[in-house]
Write a structure and sequence with these properties.
alpha+beta, SH3 type barrels, Alpha-Beta Plaits, five-stranded antiparallel β-sheet, 13 helices, 8 strands, transmembrane, transmembrane helix, MscS_channel_TM-2
């Protein structure tokens, strides 16, 4: 009797055990097929199925439409609604990006501000920007369009994910086991892709904050320095002066030194002999700067006239005079080379020599003086064997 009771309990528990999702889906399909086959579908019975049969539709197909028509119609409506939402969101994002790129939309300022006094203020800001050489229009356009592309991709991913879940629900597939499995996979991928997520988030902030863009000369680390060739959400590509290409992951960028954002400055430290007249040197440098600024070929690269800042350093044999000029982005090196050439030619014409050519240099006098002789009895260490033991 005990064995019979145990057998009955095991059989009952086996029948009550939950089946797998695949088995449940197979059972649902079987029940749906049986239910569809038992639908009343006779010509003239007054049902929609009967009307379709009267119109010449196959009875099996008519039953299929009657049973599955509502879910299929819902799925179609879900797909159409998803496409509409995606297209509307894309259009709104693209319109906003274009407004920001063209300068029509300014965050924090209302339409009434732009319609009234804001126009004059914006005009003055635009003139100041053009004078300072900030290239605000190009950089803002690039940044706005890049962020617009990122937002469109995110919108597509979110809308399509929601549509897929709704369609799966209409097909009768249980979402709870599916979402549980996806959650586990998502957690595993999240732990393994922390660096990737960090790179993407850092890339979004780099583009949104306009830390640097294509064409900028930047310093990202002790080794990675050069001109930016490409900026993506994951990696930034630099080209060094020697031609080396650096690929820097955005998540590894801890600090950025941008040499060309807005404007640049050429700073020249010029060595002159200590005996030279400092006032005359400053006057000559001022004249060279005025002539350089008046040159039409170079004036478009300058944002102001070169200025002599004065004596920067002193030493026993030279004086360092600093000359500085604000230039357009990435033009400081060519301006510096041209200024050095002009200053050298003018110094030669004025007879202002370099510090190493100064005849009053005490080092030169020391070289020409005869070497002192040692007094008798102090001629250095003996060369022969010592007589002392």
């Amino acid at each position: 009797m005990i064995a019979a009771a145990l057998t009955s309990v095991l059989a009952a528990s086996a029948s009550a055990a939950p089946s797998s999702p695949v088995q449940e889906l197979t059972n649902d399909v079987t029940r749906s097929t049986e239910a569809a086959s038992t639908l009343a579908c006779s010509p003239g019975d007054g049902t929609w199925c009967g009307l379709m049969v009267n119109a010449g539709v196959n009875e099996t197909f008519a039953k299929f439409l009657m049973y599955y028509g509502s879910p299929l119609l819902k799925i179609a409506l879900i797909l159409v609604a998803g496409l509409i939402v995606r297209n509307v969101a894309h259009s709104a994002i693209e319109a906003l990006a274009e407004r920001i790129a063209s300068g029509e939309a300014q965050p924090g300022r209302s339409r009434w501000w732009r319609a009234g006094r804001g126009r004059e203020t914006r005009a003055s800001e635009a003139s100041t920007a053009s004078t300072d050489g900030t290239l605000a229009w190009e950089r803002r356009s690039q940044r706005a369009r890049t962020l617009g592309s990122v937002l469109r991709s995110l919108t597509t991913a979110v809308v399509m994910t929601v549509v897929a879940l709704l369609v799966i629900g209409q097909l009768g597939i249980p979402l709870a086991p599916l979402l549980a499995g996806v959650s586990v996979v998502g957690v595993a991928v999240g732990f393994g892709a922390q660096t990737l997520v960090k790179d993407f988030l850092a890339g979004i902030f780099i583009i949104a904050e306009d830390q640097f863009g294509v064409g900028d000369s930047v310093n990202l680390s002790a080794d990675a320095q050069g001109t930016v060739e490409a900026v993506s959400l994951r990696v930034t590509r630099l080209r060094g002066v020697d031609g080396t290409v650096w690929y820097v992951r955005n998540g590894d960028v801890l600090r950025v030194g941008n040499r060309s954002q807005g404007w640049s400055r050429a700073v020249l430290d010029i060595d002159v002999p200590y005996s030279a007249d400092a006032a005359r040197v400053a006057e000559v440098l001022d004249e060279v700067g005025e002539q350089f600024h008046a040159d039409e070929d170079w004036r478009r690269h300058l944002l102001e006239e070169p200025q002599v800042w004065g004596i920067e350093a002193l030493s026993m044999d030279k004086v360092v005079v600093r000359l500085a000029v604000r230039t357009a982005p990435l033009q400081q090196w060519s301006v510096s080379r041209e200024l050095r050439a002009r200053i050298k030619a003018r110094f030669d014409a004025e007879g202002i020599g370099h510090s190493i050519d100064d005849p009053a240099d005490p080092a030169d006098d020391a070289d020409d003086a005869p070497a002192p002789s040692l007094p008798p009895g102090n001629q250095g260490p003996p060369t022969g064997p010592s007589s002392h033991r």
